[in-house]
Amino acid sequence: MILLDLIGPNDIPAKNRDKSSPTKVRVQYKQNDPTQEETLTNLRKQRFSMIPSFLQSAASSEKMRHLDSTSLDLDDHEDLRAGTRKIKSVSNNSDTDEESSAAKRDEVQEIRNRSRNADRHVQLWRSALLSLISVIGTAVCGLTFHFLHLEEQKALNLAYDQFSEALAETAIRQQQDISEGFRTFATIISDYAAATNQTWPFVHLPKFGAYAEHILKISGAEATVLFPLVTKENKQTYLKYADNNYEQIVYEAHMIENGNLDDLNPVGYKSFFTVGSKTGFVEDIDREVYFPLGHFSPPMFSYGAFNWNVASVPDYANIVEAIKVLKHTEPLISKVRPYATAELTLSNEEHAAMHSEIEGSSTEFPHSFVFTPVYLDSEDTDSPIVAVIGSPMAWDFSFQNLLPESVIGIHAILKNSCGQSFNYEINGPDAFYLGEGDMQHAGLVEHERFVNLALHTHPDFEAIQGHCMYSMHLYPDNKFANLYLTPVPLLYTVCIAGSFAFMIAVFFVYNSFVHKRNETLVANAARSNAVITSLFPDNIRNKIIGDESYRKNPRNFHELLDPTSDPLTDLSRPPLADYFATTTVMFADICGFTAWSSVREPSQVFTLLETVYGEFDRLTKHSKVFKVETVGDCYVAATGIPTYRKDHAVLMVKYAHKISCAMKHMAQTLETKLGPDTADLLLRIGIHSGPVTAGVIRGEKARFQLFGDTMNVAARVESTGAAGRIHVSLDTADHLRKCQKGHWLVKREGTIIAKGKGDLQTYWIGQSARNSTGTGSDTVSTSDRSNTSFEESFHATFGNQPDDTCDREDRLVDWNVTVFTDILKQIVARRNAYAAAKKDSNDLSAVDLGIVEDMKKDDFKPLHDVRETIWLPEFDQAVEDSQEDAHTIDIPTSVSTQLRDFISTIASLYRCNSFHNFEHASHVTMSVIKLLSRIIAPTDFEMMENENESDDDSFHVKANLHDHTYGITSDPLTQFACAFAALIHDVDHEGVTNAQLVKEGAVVAAKYENRSVAEQNSFVLSWNLFMSDRFATLREHLCATPAEIIRFRELAVNAVMATDIVDKDLKNLRNNRWDKAFKNQGNIEELDNESRESINRKATIVIEHLIQASDVSHTMQHWHVYRKWNERLFHEMHAAYVQGRSDSDPALTWYKGEMGFFDFYIIPLAKKLESCGVFGKSSDEFLNYARSNREEWEIRGEEIVAEMVASLKKRPATNSSV
């Protein structure tokens, strides 16, 4: 970068100042030379009438293209503060769009005027051709609409046939499964009674609830009840049997279902057969045959329904009689009617919950009773019927999961032979109950599909009375039709009509061969004007277009912006420059950007800048502010140029307010994508008003630029401002007062120093007066206030801001969900690749499933499970070739929901410590992800970029990459485990050391044998949460096999335990493994000869050091990042000391402790990252930052400790472990 110190107009005496060309002090030519004066006069007087065709190439020249910004380092602002005046490159905004459009319209009108002299024959042919195009266009549009609509109608019919057929098949199969399930259940009961030599009806089934669980799931039944057949002869014997066994039966049912008797109310038992009535259960009349209620599932709340005779209900008695007549095993279904069984076995809330997935479903209807016979001999239907199984079944469940998610709008009517009808609307897997009665839509009868749900094969099935046969009638409704009858035919028709209209418009543009040459010239002129407008403001553009010398000599146009001759000798044209006496310039710097960007990937840095600057650019167009440039992370804009505005200062302050608000909003929004601390980024804005000199320095890549003392002062005002605040100079403040905006100002205490200016008084914008000592003219008066919406927004924005702690945690959760979802997609893609290649991703030859079950226990000690070597998958070329793009993978909603729930729960398990909190865990996770992304192969194994690379070369490159990174790059499950360990490693941390927990005799210390207490506790809490049934779907999606979950747990255990850097045994174990793995390692070419055990050992130790480095990554990052987390850790340790949970004041040893921490842990750890050779440039970056921070701490550490101690005295005491 070349910095030029130019003499501006303020440095020239007024009498010698030429406002149009400040550089004439450097480049002098003879003002009184008659030849030069006459040439300049002629150039100004020439009229613009024609632009030669070569302008088209000039407009597309690289020298005319718009450049976004000139890249400058942040240290450039220090030069500005020192008074060095730099080149300010400028990019133009779109303030002159309207003028350009007007100019273009004038050119078109000129063409039209010339076209009046065209030949009459040409006009005649033009009219004929236009008429022909119109007729053809109308015919094509009509035919297109007709045929496309016809195709959609065919597609609708075909789709309905396919989906309704699939729905019918699914419904029939579902009914078959239900029927088979009930028959199987009846067989199990019959066989069990025979196997245990029990005599009906005195059969006791201890595990009836367990047997019934399966049938309840597949049928959607709300309860299952066994009704044994009791004759009049053995009635009294059975009642005595029931008196002796009813308590045991009820107890067994409750214990199987609930594991306790909490919900049982042991009252209401009747020692006689009962029948239901309005007043409760009363004694049934004498009958020849009884079917009393016996076993049941779910268990009843009381004994009240025990011995209820189902045959006392006429509808149900008829079904029982039908079963006797038919002598078959098929279940029979009652008509839909109210019943009371659900109220006996389910609470109202539980019953409602069973229907919650069916929006609009009623808990009163439609329900039916399903009765299944139980024969004495399960294989002989001629044997006596000894019992029936009765199950109240909700028809809602018969309409679930029948269609794909995308298919909606199928109307289904459930009818039975008992004269009942019920309506449902099926939308994908869901169904909506519409009501009773036949509600079929008129006009849709021809699409009806009949589905018989009565699947019996008995010849007398239909003739036997007492039961109902059900069927389903399907129709498409408007929602379904709208899926296929789309606006596409109309859109195509409109597009075709538009195409013909466009053809006509084009024809009008090129309407005359006579005027073809003039049309080309005008088009080239318009394009040239558009390019110039995008590069320069109005005044410069008008000078360029108005300079007629290039028309006579084509070379002059190129030389106008890119002179090839010596500028000291070729002074025939004046420079393109102007002087603007009253402008306001703004510098807006992103505070903390350097530290923030130091821990991000380049793509993340540019995502932030493009988003932020793009929004700022949009606001410049709406606010009529002139964008000057972007210098690094500093955005420069100005008002008062190129058009004078009296309220330029007010306009700039309003714009500064808008971008400050926008920055805060965008930073918070982007935090979910770019990670922790993004929301902390704020703008530091400095504004100064004064004169500037602006123009184009002709040369390579010429652009519009600003110069002058105003730019330097504005930069100084910005650099001495504060994050999140708008800082203005005295000159800007004076302009605001003149515009009745003095109430925006708060006088700043003290002054700032600017080179050549001395001490300058400055002001804050929009801050509360209680935060400043400003007085006098800056006091807000009632008459000076404006009650506009901007004023309200202004004061609301810069007033007291609410605490966004909860929002920050939510954003961190969102970011973590995004990170883990991306890795999860890679896991699924990798698993799919193994399946496509027909390979097994698990090299574990034998897996004890008992180990997986043991993982669900909560009494394990992770420290005992630390492995010296963890197996990672080997490289497989077939799998690599089958790998699909992970971004194309869709994660099921249920998995995403459980992932978010898990991370949110983990966040809630973190305590409110200053350092060991969820924010720090997210920071560690971000470091892990960065290091994983930086794992690369050495130069010897970099992929060849030439197009002649053979398949064998590609194979060796990928294989070498895999081996050099010890398999880490090829295994997304390993990467997920590393991020998982980073997320959970400080869960429930109490803010004190392990030694303090041991000293206090904490319960967790005793539980984990006084070793790695916090780390083991964090892992156990998190792992138990992960293994709970609540996250079963997430777990199954992450680890599809027992081998995967075992390996995932081993990786997570090793990584979390590696964060305990104090335990001597663990430290010695890691050091020994490091020496064994890396101390005597050979050349990279010898990797192929290494054993799998050796490679896996290296992978294991690299993973542990990766998590260790990430845990203290703030010490190996930008100084500001280190200072932030170092101060938080100090506050946490000091809080422990104040609470009596630490023996010594950390302030006494903090300085030397940090020095030792750098010397004996951080720097050696960074060197290990470098020596293992898999982290590429990141290892150098970490080591350089560590050494730099160590040097800075050595110089400033004692002063910083004193500042931290002083800040603590101003803060109220808090319990950091709450």
TrEMBL record:
It comes from the Eukaryota. The chain crosses the membrane at residues 124-148, 490-510. One of its GO terms (biological process) is receptor guanylyl cyclase signaling pathway. It is found in: Membrane. InterPro entries: A/G_cyclase (IPR001054), Cyclic_nucleotide_synthase (IPR050401), HD/PDEase_dom (IPR003607), Nucleotide_cyclase (IPR029787), PDEase_catalytic_dom (IPR002073), PDEase_catalytic_dom_sf (IPR036971). One of its GO terms (cellular component) is plasma membrane. The keyword Transferase does not apply. Residues 101-112 have a biased composition (Basic and acidic residues). The keyword Lyase applies. Residues 7-34, 84-112 are annotated as: Disordered. Residues 584-718 form the Guanylate cyclase domain. This is Guanylate cyclase domain-containing protein. It comes from Cylindrotheca closterium.
